[in-house]
Amino acid sequence: MLLTITTTHNPATDLGYLLHKNPSRIQTFPQTFGAAHVFYPESNPEKCTAALLLDVDTIGLVRGKRGENRTLEHYVNDRSFVASSFLSVAIGQIYRSAMTGKSESHAALAQTAIPLEARVFSLPCRGGEDFLRNLFEPLGYEVRAENQLLDEQFPEWGASDYFNVTLRAEKRLSELLTHLYVLIPVLDNEKHYWVGDEEVEKLLRRGEGWLGSHPMREIITRRYLKHRSSLAREALTRLMQDEIAELATEKPETSEETLEKPLSLNEQRYAAVIAALKSVAAKRILDVGCGEGKLLRRLLDERSFTEIAGMDVSHRALEIAAERLRLERLPDMQRERIKLLHGSLTYRDARLAGFDAACVIEVIEHLDAARLTAFERVLFEFARPKTIILTTPNFEYNAKFETLPQGKFRHADHRFEWTRAEFEFWAEQTAAKFGYQVQFSTV
């Protein structure tokens, strides 16, 4: 398995100081699973590339499995050929000083964002290219993924789950290494070692400053901790505590709900949505990105809606929704009308099919461009409800909020806020692409 890191910072050879590895010689580091080699295939003032090559001794790994029934899978597998948790461990050990962001000779440079390109070869992506992009693009990376065939001699067999991945960004080297360290085993979803309490501490330490705000934090946490539910709950609880502490110090004008409350926009919005659902005689309703269940509560009060489903990517939000709806105390007939689904808005999901109407209320503005495109296909092409009711903030209306600085969005997590013309352009293009008719109304 091979990882290369390239910079064009001038002089590019400073990369050697940041990595604490001399570009003029090859270095070999024994590992419990084999050996790791660091060398520089390219090193000059204009461009410098450091390579980390792992040689995994699969036979040696099997010899260490005492007391286990050995199967053919122990000897015939992809572990020696793909970027996996072995590579993550090697990054943590061999580039440990670089991950801390320390350099005695180049301390200022270690804390400076420089142009970096990382290439990871044969990276397993259990979840496909969309999942890969959803992990790295929110962190500011330009992502290029080249899918590998199952067998080049038999292209008709189709594509594999393995990609050659290139990541580009201007970042501190310590940031890049930390993101790779955490996310490579998340993509592989198959750690080679026992996961215990110390892994929670390691994840929180390496995820400080970015994991808590990552839109995929729950999936990252669960995969990194090898789907051990108790450990994942502990890590997510601690991440939520940090987030709550941060929100407690947030200025009132950065909170969308607080900002809109004096004008009662939220209540008007929900009333408009329910009126639209009734106008199309919808019975089976899907709330996409339901969050903490505020709209679900109102939907449940309408007896004409016979089946209601709320889906969100956040486990914690769904827990709050269940408490708000008092699901455990609802009468059986009421309880059967509603269900909560955990899932991503950007992955095809068979559970989303067959609804009369889908509500997408103040959701799309939280999606980056690449994720918005995936969301369009998930909802309009695959789930394909008969009616879609979608709301998003009108940027032109923001001038009415006296406490909102000019040019600012209503919420810090908004990736965009469209004007009416921009919204109409997107909606008309999307409707035409997927065979829907579109009409507009205001709140």
General description of the model:
- The protein has 443 residues and is of the alpha/beta class.
- It contains 18 helices and twelve strands.
- The strands form two sheets. Strands 2-3-4-1-5-7-6 form a seven-stranded antiparallel beta sheet, covered by helices on one side. The protein has a five-stranded parallel beta sheet with strand order 10-9-8-11-12, with helices on one face.
- Helix 17 links the parallel strand 11 and strand 12.
- Helix 4 packs antiparallel against helix 8.
- It starts with a strand and ends in a 9-residue tail after the last helix.
- Summarize the biggest pleated sheet: 7 strands, antiparallel
Question: Can you count the helices?
Answer: 18
The helix/strand order is: EHEEEHHHHHEHEEHHHHHHEHEHHEEHEH
Instruction: Give the helix proportion (percent range).
Output: 25-40%
Question: Order of strands across the widest beta sheet?
Answer: 2-3-4-1-5-7-6
Topology, number of strands:
12
Mean pLDDT: 86
Going by helix content, strand content and strand pairing, the class is alpha/beta
Bulk shape = elongated
N-C termini distance = 55 Å
The radius of gyration is 25 Å
Q: What is the strand content?
A: 15-25%
Poorly predicted segments: 244-254
What order do the helices and strands come in, and which of them pair?
Layout (H helix, E strand, L loop, with lengths): L1 E6 L7 H5 L7 E5 L2 E10 L4 E9 L1 H6 L8 H4 L9 H10 L1 H5 L6 H4 L3 E11 L3 H9 L5 E8 L9 E13 L1 H16 L8 H10 L10 H8 L4 H20 L7 H5 L4 H15 L4 E5 L5 H7 L6 E6 L2 H11 L6 H4 L2 E5 L14 E5 L7 H15 L3 E5 L28 H15 L9
Helix pairs in contact: 4-8, 8-10, 9-11, 10-11
